[in-house]
Each structure stands twice: as structure tokens, then as C-alpha cells.
């Protein structure tokens, strides 16, 4: 499809260009490659497509066929330029069967062009770049240029050109980096450069300043104008780390005009680059090229692994206090870790602080350490009841429990540790005293805090002769993950929990009486006149349909999923509209049928299936026998056991269900003009619309003509095996399955003569 932009000439208005309509968004073409310049200098590059048979051809021979001045693209420092390797020709006009390599040839300002680098695969590559001839000094060695090929999005490849020296800021504050080249003679740029690195950021050092003297100072957000820190007291030097995997740590210090001290640690590590080699002729000095990562770290890090706020105080620094929120960390820069450090901690409900003294040689590193504050156990109450815990054999309840724990469930996890090492390392629990103020709560049987699932009962003794109140709950003990691996999390939860009333609401559930049948019933609140469903068990993993009816017998189906997670059974109710029902009654007969579950012959639970229709069904009583009773007109019953299908999976032919098929003896001439609807009135003088049938009035033996009345037994007749017609209304209803015998009350019978 081609789009043309046409020009129309008008004699009055001249030329008029027809462009795109307003709001039209033109689709931009996809460019599969992009180059980002992080060298700090200008970069020239050109893409090269090289056949595989010319891979080992020197770069000079490849570049001789190119016009370097016209074809090379220029990228300024910090910019990103997209590029592609394909020209404007069509792919079918080229030799597409040949394997080609996509390479880049790059030249950094101040250095010669380097050999080509393939960008077909994601990875980190490097090349050596020699200085240009205009720099006559022999001290300047080659520079190491790094090409980092990454996948940006789903298909675009980003080629980042940078130096091999990285600076990573792991401090909580931004830092300013000073790179001074003024005192070096082995450099091509003697200017001073400043960089800013945000917290958590990683920046490459400009290629022209990798040999510069490096100084760092923090930029604190809360500092006032004029209260900033000066650069660190000594430069950061990375040249002493020569082997990959080695790490050199050193403590730095920055002063302010108010005599504040900001301490931090530098960790220098060498990346996995090839070892350095002498530059120039044999016997030349070894110039160490940058291939390092410099990481700025705080000297002291305090991590709060508690579920509540942690308050700390540093005694060596007067007035240094702070608060750490749950799961977060904070850095302390004012303390000299070359001497002993004393930290005091306290919580909201524990105002008395505890002290931690860290000597200088407490850790393997003499320049930094990390303090993680955690608890051995968390008690997370998910029972929806006020529960009080105590160590077995200890008279006092566990620390951190107050008067409100006797009244309501604690929302935050309870920190717990065994206070008496000589007592039993088990726990006991009871419900709060305010849950049943007039009764006596009892402690449950002891349970351990090792990994696993346990079940206990909380008993409340009543003062009268009524049975005790018992609450059953599960205990799931599991170790923490990740940074919380030293903490065991204990979840006392309800034995069952379910969704009720409000959609998407989860509530805990306890059996009020454990001495009764533990079956759950439900009803729909938003259905007027909704009745309770049949009881069903929730003591094992299960999935079933629940049949809920209203007062008129209409059925509503719900899907129930019972899943055991940890120590709690989760009962989840969902709509069953998209799930096929467990049973379906197909009535292919000519008469309506009534069906119901055999064990519950209640009239309100009986359902009628019209002729040639289907009716979905789920058991009204899931725990009772799975059998269905069908009833035909006339009261004929037949029961069918559905467990046979559940066991074998094969269809079975049950007993036949027979019913009486009564007939009318009508005069056809009176039905010719009969109205289709019973609401339409006919003229009493029109004989062809009278619908006359033979009728025997009640209490009489005379056969008369009467208007047809649907359902009137006096107008119904049956055909006998002897070819006689017998009047149905002259005797009581009988079972059609029994052999016919003349009833003494059958007064009217006639013989058909043909």
C-alpha cells in the first residue's frame, strides 16, 4: 500500500498541500539498534555488515572501503542514537542465504578507532583504544572501552559504550564526585570534572578521567545552605586491587563547617577482565588499566526485622536517636567504628532499652558492619478471638500482652521468646477473660513451636451445669523467608474460615458446639424467603454444588471449595453459573414428572419437570443417600440409586415408570371451531364450538354429554385388556403397575363394537 501526497493548483489560492487530517497519528518505524554514549566524550561510530568468511580481515582493510568522514555518526556524551544495519534496498533482491555479522566500529574523541565489535549477542565486550598521534607523550597507555549489549524491551538491542571503571552509591544520600586530572601528565584531558550519583545509582567514570584523583562528598537532603560537607580527607584509589575477586575496604571521612563528621566506607573490587600487560617495548612499566567497581557503603547499618517500629540511640554521639519502620534499614555515619560502639534499642510497649556493644574486631571487616534486630518467634493471631499465650511452666503470661488482649484480638504480631530456658519450650493458650466474663477460660494442652501443623481446643468452663464452650483452632509453624529466615512465624488460626454475607469478605469461623454434628448450612441473604441449605461437611478437601431454595421451591446453586492451607480449612463460595450441575433431569415423556431426593420427601423440596424439558439439580442433603425418586401422574413412584453411576461410571437402565394414560370420548363435530385459547369465549348457540365429551356426574350412573373440563375425573376413561372402556371417576385411583381387576365400584363399562 502506497500513500501519496498530492499537490493541487488553484488559480485563486495557488498551491495547496493536502496533508494528514488533524489528530492523525503516524506510525514510527521500528529501529532494532541504539547506541548510548556513557564515555563522557564524543563518539563516532559506523555499522558494518561483515560476511562470515571475512571475519578475520583486519579492521583497516574493512575501513578503507568506507568514507569515514561522511558515513560515521556522531553521538554526544549522555545521548542515545538509534541506528540500523539495513539499507533502503529490498531483502528479496539481496543474497539472504549468506550469514552476516552485525558489527560496530567506534572511535572515541582522543583515541584511535578500535576494531569492530559484534552486537548480535547480548553480553559485555571490551576493546583497547590507543591514543591519537597528536598526543606525543609515551606515558599514556591504551584505554579500555567497554561495550555492554542489553535487550531493551522485547526486541531492541541497546549498545552502551562506557569505561571499565564503575562507581556504585549504596548510601542513603546522593554524593558528588570530583575527578581531578590537573596533577597528571599521563592524560589527554587535564580538566576537573564533577559528577552526581543518586542513592542506589551506578555510573561509569568518564573515559578521559579514569586515571584522575577521585574525591567524594555527600549531599544531605536535610542540610541547610552553607552547612554542606567538604570532600573526603583522602582520595579513593583503586589501583591496589589487581586480582579478580579481591576486595579492598577503606574508611573515608568528610567534615562540615560545624565540625560534623560523615563517615562512609569504600569497597573496591576488580571485575573479571584479563590481567594487565606492559605497554610498549619489552621492559616498559606496567600500567594498570581500570577494570574495577567502587562501591560506597555506610559504616553501620541497622535493619529492623520486627513487625513494629524500632527506636535506637547511639551513646557515642550525643543526641543521636532515630526510629526505623518495620522491614526498613537505616545508616549511621557519625560513629567511629575503630572503637567500641554501643547501641540502645527499645520498642513502644517496652520503654526500657537494651544495650548492644560492638567491639572493633567483632566482624571480619574492620570498616563496616550491619546489625539486624529480629525476634525468634512471631505469634500471628488469626482466630478472630482474643487469645492470651504463656510459656508452659511459667506463671506469668508472655511479655507484650496487656488488658486489651483480654478483650479483643491483637492485630499486630506478638513478639515472643522463651523467658525461662529451664522451663518447657512449649506454649499454652486461652481465650481472653472478657470474651465470657461470667465464665472461666482454661489453658489448652501445650504445643511446640517447631515446623508443622497442630490442632488445639480452647475450653471455657461455665458456672452452671451447661456443657463447656470449646473453640478449636489450628497452629501452623513455619520458618520465615529471605531476610526473615531466623524467625519462626506461628499462625494460630480458626479451624475453618469462609466467605459470608458481604462479597469478597473473609471471616474466621469456630464451631459453637463440638458435641454436635459439625455440618455447615448456608442461605442467601439477598434472596427473599431463602431457606437454609442442607448440611455439608468441611473437614476434608472437597468441591461440590450446594442447592439453596426459597419458600416457593426455586433452586439457587453455589459452588463450594474446601481447601486445607496450613492449619486452616478455607471454605470458598463462588457462583456456579459457569459450571455444569452434578445432575440433570431430562423428561422426554408426554406428561410432567415430579422428582426429589429419596431421603427428604418434603413437599417443598419436590420439583416438577415439564414434558420435553430439562431441569438441573444438586442434592438437597449432600450427606444423605444419593438416590432420586420420580413420581408420575397418578402417584406412581420409582427410586433410582445414583451411587451406581458414581462407582462404575456406566449408564444403567432402571425400572420402568408407568402411569395411566386416560382418554376423552369426544364428539368431533363439536371441536371443529374450538378456540385455541381457553380465554376466548364461544357462542352458546354454536354447536361446532361446544367441545362435548361423555361425562358421568358424581353420584350418578348415567352417561351424559358435558363440556370438556381439564382434569375432571368424571370425564376420563381407560381402555382395558378386554377391549372395554372403563370409567375412571367411578372408582378410586389405583396403581397402574398392578394387574387389572374389576373394582366393585366400577359401575360404568361399555363394549366397543366395530
UniProtKB/TrEMBL annotation:
It comes from the Eukaryota. Residues 100-365, 367-489, 500-624 form the Vacuolar protein sorting-associated protein 13 VPS13 adaptor binding domain. GO terms for biological process: mitochondrion organization; protein retention in Golgi apparatus; protein targeting to vacuole. Residues 723-744 are annotated as: Disordered. InterPro entries: VPS13, VPS13_VAB. PANTHER family: INTERMEMBRANE LIPID TRANSFER PROTEIN VPS13D, VACUOLAR PROTEIN SORTING-ASSOCIATED PROTEIN VPS13. This is Vacuolar protein sorting-associated protein 13 VPS13 adaptor binding domain-containing protein. It comes from Timema bartmani.
Amino acid at each position: 500500500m502506497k500513500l501519496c501526497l498530492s499537490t493541487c493548483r488553484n488559480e485563486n489560492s495557488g498551491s495547496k498541500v493536502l496533508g494528514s487530517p488533524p489528530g492523525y497519528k503516524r506510525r514510527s518505524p521500528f529501529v532494532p539498534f541504539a547506541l548510548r554514549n556513557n564515555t563522557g566524550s564524543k563518539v563516532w561510530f559506523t555499522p558494518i555488515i561483515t560476511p562470515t568468511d571475512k571475519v578475520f580481515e583486519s579492521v583497516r582493510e574493512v575501513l578503507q572501503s568506507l568514507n569515514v568522514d561522511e558515513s560515521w555518526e556522531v553521538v554526544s556524551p549522555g545521548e542515545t542514537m538509534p541506528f540500523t544495519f539495513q539499507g533502503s534496498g529490498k531483502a528479496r533482491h539481496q543474497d539472504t542465504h549468506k550469514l552476516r555479522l552485525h558489527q560496530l566500529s567506534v572511535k572515541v574523541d582522543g583515541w584511535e578507532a578500535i576494531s569492530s565489535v559484534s552486537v548480535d549477542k547480548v553480553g559485555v565486550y571490551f576493546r583497547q583504544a590507543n591514543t591519537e598521534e597528536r598526543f606525543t607523550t609515551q606515558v599514556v597507555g591504551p584505554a579500555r572501552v567497554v561495550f555492554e549489549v542489553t535487550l531493551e524491551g522485547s526486541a531492541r538491542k541497546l549498545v552502551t559504550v562506557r569505561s571499565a571503571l564503575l562507581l556504585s552509591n549504596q548510601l542513603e544520600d546522593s554524593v558528588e564526585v570530583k575527578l581531578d586530572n590537573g596533577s597528571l601528565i599521563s592524560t589527554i584531558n587535564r580538566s576537573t570534572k564533577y559528577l552526581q550519583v543518586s542513592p542506589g545509582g551506578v555510573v561509569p567514570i568518564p573515559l578521559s578521567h579514569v586515571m584522575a584523583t577521585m574525591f567524594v562528598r555527600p549531599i544531605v537532603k536535610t542540610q541547610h545552605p552553607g552547612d554542606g560537607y567538604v570532600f573526603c580527607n583522602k582520595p579513593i584509589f583503586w589501583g591496589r586491587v589487581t586480582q579478580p575477586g579481591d576486595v579492598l575496604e577503606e574508611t573515608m571521612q568528610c567534615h562540615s563547617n560545624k565540625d560534623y563528621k560523615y563517615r562512609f566506607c569504600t569497597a573496591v573490587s576488580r571485575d573479571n577482565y584479563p590481567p594487565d600487560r606492559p605497554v610498549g617495548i619489552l621492559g616498559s612499566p606496567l600500567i594498570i588499566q581500570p577494570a574495577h567497581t567502587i562501591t560506597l557503603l555506610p559504616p553501620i547499618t541497622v535493619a529492623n526485622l520486627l513487625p513494629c517500629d524500632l527506636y535506637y540511640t547511639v551513646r557515642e554521639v550525643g543526641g543521636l536517636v532515630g526510629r526505623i519502620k518495620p522491614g526498613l534499614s537505616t545508616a549511621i555515619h557519625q560513629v567511629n567504628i575503630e572503637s567500641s560502639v554501643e547501641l540502645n534499642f527499645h520498642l513502644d510497649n517496652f520503654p526500657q532499652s537494651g544495650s548492644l556493644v560492638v567491639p572493633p574486631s567483632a566482624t571480619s571487616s574492620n570498616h563496616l558492619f550491619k546489625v539486624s534486630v529480629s525476634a525468634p518467634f512471631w505469634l500471628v493471631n488469626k482466630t478472630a478471638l482474643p487469645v492470651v499465650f504463656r510459656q508452659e511452666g511459667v506463671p506469668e503470661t508472655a511479655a507484650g500482652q496487656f488488658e486489651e488482649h483480654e478483650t479483643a484480638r491483637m492485630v499486630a504480631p506478638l513478639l515472643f521468646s522463651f523467658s525461662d530456658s529451664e522451663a518447657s519450650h512449649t506454649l499454652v493458650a486461652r481465650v481472653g477473660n472478657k470474651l465470657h466474663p461470667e465464665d472461666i477460660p482454661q489453658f489448652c494442652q501445650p504445643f511446640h513451636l517447631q515446623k508443622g501443623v497442630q490442632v488445639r481446643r480452647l475450653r471455657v468452663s461455665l458456672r452452671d451445669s451447661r456443657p463447656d464452650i470449646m473453640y478449636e483452632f489450628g497452629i501452623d509453624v513455619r520458618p520465615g523467608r529471605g531476610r526473615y529466615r531466623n524467625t519462626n512465624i506461628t499462625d494460630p488460626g480458626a479451624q475453618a474460615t469462609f466467605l459470608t454475607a458481604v462479597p469478597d469478605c473473609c471471616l474466621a469461623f469456630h464451631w459453637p458446639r463440638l458435641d454436635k454434628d459439625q455440618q455447615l448450612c448456608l442461605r442467601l441473604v439477598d434472596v427473599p424467603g431463602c431457606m437454609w441449605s442442607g448440611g455439608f461437611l468441611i473437614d476434608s478437601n472437597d468441591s461440590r454444588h450446594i442447592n439453596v431454595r426459597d419458600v416457593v421451591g426455586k433452586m439457587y446453586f453455589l459452588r463450594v471449595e474446601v481447601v486445607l492451607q496450613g492449619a486452616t480449612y478455607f471454605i470458598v463460595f463462588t457462583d456456579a453459573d459457569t459450571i455444569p450441575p452434578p445432575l440433570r433431569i431430562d423428561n422426554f415423556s408426554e406428561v410432567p414428572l415430579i422428582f426429589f431426593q429419596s431421603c427428604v420427601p418434603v413437599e417443598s423440596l419436590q420439583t416438577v419437570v415439564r414434558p420435553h424439558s430439562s431441569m438441573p439439580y444438586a442434592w438437597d442433603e449432600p450427606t444423605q443417600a444419593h438416590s432420586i425418586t420420580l413420581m408420575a401422574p397418578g402417584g406412581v413412584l420409582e427410586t433410582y440409586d445414583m451411587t451406581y453411576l458414581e462407582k462404575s461410571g456406566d449408564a444403567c437402565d432402571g425400572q420402568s415408570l408407568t402411569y395411566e394414560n386416560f382418554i376423552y370420548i369426544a364428539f368431533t363435530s363439536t371441536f371443529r371451531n374450538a378456540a385455541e385459547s381457553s380465554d376466548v369465549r364461544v357462542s352458546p348457540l354454536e354447536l361446532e364450538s361446544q367441545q362435548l365429551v361423555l361425562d358421568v356426574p358424581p353420584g350418578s350412573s348415567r352417561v351424559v354429554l358435558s363440556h370438556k373440563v381439564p382434569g375432571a375425573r368424571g370425564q376420563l376413561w381407560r381402555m382395558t385388556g378386554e377391549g372395554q372402556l372403563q370409567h375412571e371417576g367411578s372408582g378410586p385411583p389405583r396403581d397402574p403397575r398392578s394387574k387389572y381387576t374389576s373394582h366393585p365400584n366400577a359401575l360404568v363399562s361399555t363394549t366397543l363394537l366395530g
